[in-house]
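About this split. The held-out portion is used to measure sequence recovery: a designer receives only the structure tokens and must propose an amino acid at every position. Recovery is the fraction of positions where the proposal matches the reference. Here is one held-out target exactly as it appears in the evaluation file.
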């Protein structure tokens, strides 16, 4: 220190020379933000000569966009040291820190701002982000090409027939690691979609494991999912057993029919989703796992949460990324694509070249497909095997012909097995149709031939949104 002071005494500009030799901006103001002194780099960065800065208040310079925001002002307002990213007129960015200089009493006597150019760093990291995005996009495209696309024991398929918006959503869901929930009636492609998300994701090389939560009793399901330690219960393997979460390490675990998960396992699953750790049966310590969960259900989970048969906190957690696959009867426009797609697939599988008349195709389009894509696919396989060269309307199952001229709500009849259920379904659908057509509930009631108050009672009973 003594030597330093000696040098300073010998050279009056010693300290300012030091500050000028630094490659970062040093900008000194009084406690009110009036510029007292700036080093050479400050002039270069702001593109304003020193004499035009000295004496000016940083607030005015900020208004003139010489720099924004002014870190000096921020530090003064916060009454403490502050760091921020500051931009100057030509768009260059700086990491700026405002330091308060205090006297022995703790009063601020000056503020020193120090700025370092990070334009290059920002450029490189945003370039890096762009490149990463592009890379991810290409690898997803590549994975799409490689996907064998089979979820059943069918031969490999070319691709899933998806609405562009669904395809887009699946791509986005595949990009991230968040839990996803797929909803839809039976046969709408929930399992196929889950597998596609996995195959398009970065986890594609790791296992995709699925389990149907409705397929076994509670205790068995718990040990299947979480595994158990040796000697956990009588009848347990002496060596213990790894659970499916462990088996899916690095990959995806697909929980089908999640609505059937018993309450106590719902709590265990929620814990896993929140902490990525779980307790195998009989174990004392939590085990970590890196597994993405995708769940599916054909039940109305939201309604189940109201009836308290499904935990609402788990529902919200699962619902972050939700994808609903509409039933075929609501997507009549894809029936033709699917029909030809499966015709082609099974023609290839059985090495034949069957065709379909346009009349038969019309009936395909007007049928309501209670079993959705699975039903259409299975029927097409049967037709390709059994029909002569051309698939005619007479080759189609009787029920498809019978249903043809029925209104849509009647077509759903065979999904219901009891008379009250069927009648309710018809009633609900008639109300829906009438409400769609008529602007007011009064007119809808008139059309249905009931009083408005009866209509309103039914609207509440069936939880219809009006
Ligand atoms: N978008 C699609 N394009 C082509 N084939 C599809 C599509 N979606 C589903 N499939 C096929 O339809 C059949 C039924 O699909 P999947 O098993 O995924 O339905 P699901 O909704 O899981 O049914 P469930 O509720 O009964 O489990 C499968 O053979 C599947 O490959
Ligand atoms: Mg399924």
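Reference sequence for scoring:
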């Amino acid at each position: 220190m003594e030597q330093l002071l000696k040098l300073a005494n010998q050279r009056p500009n010693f300290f300012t020379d030091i500050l000028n030799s630094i490659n970062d901006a040093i900008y000194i103001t009084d406690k009110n933000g009036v510029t007292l002194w700036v080093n050479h780099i400050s002039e270069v960065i702001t593109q304003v000569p020193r004499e035009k800065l000295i004496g000016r208040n940083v607030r005015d310079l900020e208004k003139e966009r010489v720099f924004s925001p002014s870190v000096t002002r921020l530090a003064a307002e916060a009454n403490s040291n502050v760091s921020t990213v500051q931009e100057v007129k030509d768009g260059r960015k700086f990491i700026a820190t405002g330091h308060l200089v205090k006297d022995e009493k703790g009063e601020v006597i000056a503020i020193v701002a120090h700025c370092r150019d990070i334009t290059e760093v920002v450029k490189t990291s945003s370039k890096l982000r762009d490149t990463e995005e592009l890379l991810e996009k290409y690898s997803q495209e590549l994975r799409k090409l490689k996907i064998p696309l089979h979820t059943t024991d069918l031969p490999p398929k070319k691709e899933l027939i998806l609405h562009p918006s669904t395809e887009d959503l699946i791509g986005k869901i595949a990009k991230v690691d968040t839990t996803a929930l797929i909803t839809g009636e039976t046969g709408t492609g929930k399992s196929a979609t889950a597998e596609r998300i996995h195959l398009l994701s970065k986890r594609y090389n790791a296992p995709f494991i699925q389990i149907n939560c409705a397929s076994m009793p509670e205790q068995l399901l718990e040990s299947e999912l979480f595994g158990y330690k040796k000697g956990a219960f009588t009848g347990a393997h002496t060596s213990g057993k790894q659970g499916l979460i462990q088996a899916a390490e690095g990959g995806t675990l697909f929980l089908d029919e999640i609505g059937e998960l018993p309450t106590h396992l719902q709590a265990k699953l929620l814990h896993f989703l929140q902490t990525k750790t779980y307790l195998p049966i009989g174990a004392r310590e939590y085990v970590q796992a890196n597994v993405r969960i995708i769940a599916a259900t054909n039940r109305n989970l939201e309604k189940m949460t109201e009836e308290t048969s499904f935990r609402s906190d788990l529902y919200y957690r699962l619902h972050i990324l939700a994808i609903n696959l509409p039933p075929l009867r609501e997507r009549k426009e894809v029936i033709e694509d699917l029909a030809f797609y499966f015709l082609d697939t099974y023609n290839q599988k059985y090495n034949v070249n069957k065709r379909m008349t346009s009349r038969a195709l019309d009936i395909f389009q007007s049928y309501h497909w209670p079993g959705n894509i699975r039903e259409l696919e299975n029927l097409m396989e049967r037709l390709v095997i059994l029909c002569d060269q051309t698939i005619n309307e007479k080759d189609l199952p009787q029920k498809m012909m019978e249903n043809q001229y029925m209104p849509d709500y009647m077509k759903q009849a065979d999904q219901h097995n009891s008379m009250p259920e069927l009648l309710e379904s018809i009633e609900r659908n008639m109300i829906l149709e009438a409400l769609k057509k008529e602007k007011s509930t009064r007119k809808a009631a008139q059309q249905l031939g009931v009083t408005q108050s009866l209509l309103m009672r039914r609207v509440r009973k069936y939880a219809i949104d009006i």
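Annotator remark: Residues 419-461 form one domain.
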